[in-house]
Design goal:
- The structure is a single chain.
- The protein is an alpha+beta fold.
- The protein is built from 5 helices and 11 strands.
- Among the domains are: about 60 residues; about 110 residues, no CATH class.
- The strands form 4 sheets. Strands 3-10-11 form a 3-stranded antiparallel β-sheet, with no helix packed on it.
Length: about 290
Amino acid sequence: MYEIIAAATNLTALAVIGFIYAAYIKNLRSVNQLTDSQLKVSEQNLKLWKDKALELERRAPEFVEKKLNERIKIREEELSRLAKDSESHVGQIELKNREIRSLRDSIEKATEYRKSITVWDSEEKDFVEVSDSDLEQRYIGSVCVDTASLMICDPWYPTMSAEREAEEFQVQSYMYQVISSGELFCTDDEGDSFPSEILGVEKELTVKDMVDSGLIKKIQYNGNMPAINSSYIGGDMHDPEYKEIRHLSFVNGRLGAGISISIGADGVYPVYIEYYKDEMQRIIIGA
């Protein structure tokens, strides 16, 4: 009986102790939760006060001055860099301007050279290169045109008698034809370079050089005179092939008797002479 009572008493004591422990644990949890809430509130308050302190600091003159000094330094560095860039750009611009001036000078010299002319200077007793502006141009009259062409020659050549021509001009040995134009000319010297210049071929080439280069070809010539009827200056000047420029030939087929130029239309054309130191240098027809 006693044992039963003791056991019941112990169980009751254990139950009371368990209840007290449970209550203690629950109280601890409540206190812990309260502490966490307080910590969160404290952190929020701390952050709030930090923000307010930072805002007040930003309003302080020292802070404003510091920020302004930083911005001024940045601007000064930017200005210094821009100044250096500007100096570099100024140098480059000046270099380009010098190059442009040099090119313009070269163009002016080239233009002046293009307008220059070689003339005989009787005082220097030599040929000299003079600017086109150094020539004096004088109007000497007009020429009437009814065949749309003009002939430039010595007036004695078209009127030369057959007897005089026979005395002056010997029969040539060779006749040639220019491949590009079909023009004919005669020569007695295959080393002759005179026709190559007036035929628009490099003047350094001789007749033989032009044949070897395929610029002209030798054709059969029987020695008759006039040698070339279509370009003979004393003939009827009839040419079945219309040409803007014809080199007129002497009775023996040599070129140089004159030049016939097609000017495209009839009319009255002014004629000018250009002088250098009162000596005739060039004749200009039309303006």
